[in-house]
Amino acid sequence: MDAVVKFTNQSQGRDRVFRATQYACALSIYLLQKKSSERKDLVAKLKSLEATMSAGRKLFRLGNTLNSIEAAKRTMQLSDPVLCLCLTVANINRALYFICDNVLWARSVGLIRDIDKEHWSLNASRCYFFSLVMNLSRDVYEIIQLMVQKARKGHFRQKMDQHLSENPEVAEVVIPQLDAFLFLLLESLKSHPAVALDTLKNTCDLFIPLDRLGIYKSNAGVVGFCGLISSLIGIVTLAQPKLKIKP
Amino acid sequence: MDSWVRFNSQSQAKERVLRAAQYACTLLGYTLQKGGVAAELHKTVTQLEAHMSLTRKLLRLGNSVEALEAAKRAIHLSDSVLRLCLTISHLNRAMYFACDNVLWAGKTGLISKLDQDKWSQRSFRYYLFALILNLTRDVYELRLLIECEERYRASKSPPSAYPGNNGPADHLSSPSLPASPAAVALPVMSAWLRRRLHLVATVLYSNPPLLLDLLKNSCDIFIPLDRLGIYPTGKGFVGACGLASSVLSILTIVHPWLKLKP
């Protein structure tokens, strides 16, 4: 109970729980609507809950632009040039996304009236999309570095040879190089779960703006499911700081 | 900038800022209404206030557990008055948050047929009890500190500084001045009162956490008193008190040494 209290005391912790609830509602609404059109009152309640969570989260995020700018300032000082570029651009795009989000919040409460809601919403999705692409590039770069490091190690080569000579008749060993590559990839990811989790989180998150911008239209169920998975991963990385990717 | 990031990352800090904004909207709405401004602007301000109130309820969803944990900790305090006041205050706060959660579920439509007025009154009653206990604790702490200060002063200077305390010997030594008791009592009373007030002021000035906590609870108590109809003061006064107490509580978060302990 003490750990739960400490977790929810962090602003990010609460936000992630609300995000998970929001996407769980979206997924449940999709599944209920597909199965039967009878549970209308339950669907209405879930829609209302989702809308409340979304509106509440927009209000909490009002100060996050400054957080992202601070993060961008910190990542500008990284020594590795690829990491520096990827993370700084990602943070700047997140700051722009939060600005668009704040404008949308002001529109929804009626503080600003005559702005094009659709235009700002698309801009927000675009900034979010770019920041996710940059985060994924960083993940790919980290994975490549890990794979190169691992391939150089002597005892890993022994493991690889052992794996390749194990099952020469199995169907999937059609292209031995592909098998070796996949083995190296999986071993690297297993030894660095933080990178694996971050990659999975960003990949799941990517489906949300892809659907919103019309680049790859999936459906509300897929968006809800991906959002839920990425929120759960976010909660796990916050609860277990070892699993958070650094920097 | 760094301190902003640290401040923003605390959930409680955000909730306090939202509370300050909400009561600022209440005060602004009252001022606009008195000034006779366009209904449009007044409606926007009222809507914004309602939106912040609902979002704060969402943010407070887990606070019952926190209040129960605080009550569990308060049971182990050594001073019996503090132990009683703080434990019951935290339990009342936990009940207040529980009622608040039910109200949130009713407002968002999760519970369909909810008597919102009844639950609102319940939650304000628990809030009032918690505030009364907090004020009792403040007065108790103040009393202890005043006693300490009096003993310190008595040990520093001998008691001949108090001329009015010598009793009947005075009257016997000066029979040529038959002053009436009323004429003597009044200046003696005002001198005593001034001394007491000076003592209270000194104690509070040298203990900023106690002063802040006392001010905060005194401002806060007008809110449930107004909502329950016990002492109605009006939206403007409630808004001003709420804003003042939120600002004071933000100060205690930004400067943790200003928070009254335990």
From TrEMBL, chain A:
Pfam families: PEX11 (PF05648)
GO biological process: peroxisome fission
Keyword field contains Transmembrane helix: yes
Keywords assigned: Membrane, Peroxisome, Peroxisome biogenesis, Transmembrane, Transmembrane helix
Phylogenetic lineage: Eukaryota, Metazoa, Chordata, Craniata, Vertebrata
Classification via InterPro entries: PEX11
Organism: Collichthys lucidus (Big head croaker)
Membrane-spanning parts: 220-239
Protein name from the UniProt record: Peroxisomal membrane protein 11A
One CC-aspect GO term: peroxisomal membrane
Annotated localization: Peroxisome membrane
TrEMBL record, chain B:
Region (Disordered): 155-174
Entry's transmembrane regions: 237-258
GO cellular component: peroxisomal membrane
InterPro entries membership: PEX11
Superkingdom of this protein's organism: Eukaryota
Compartment(s) where it occurs, according to its Swiss-Prot or TrEMBL record: Peroxisome membrane
Biological-process GO terms, alphabetical: peroxisome fission
Transmembrane among keywords: yes
Protein name: Peroxisomal membrane protein 11B
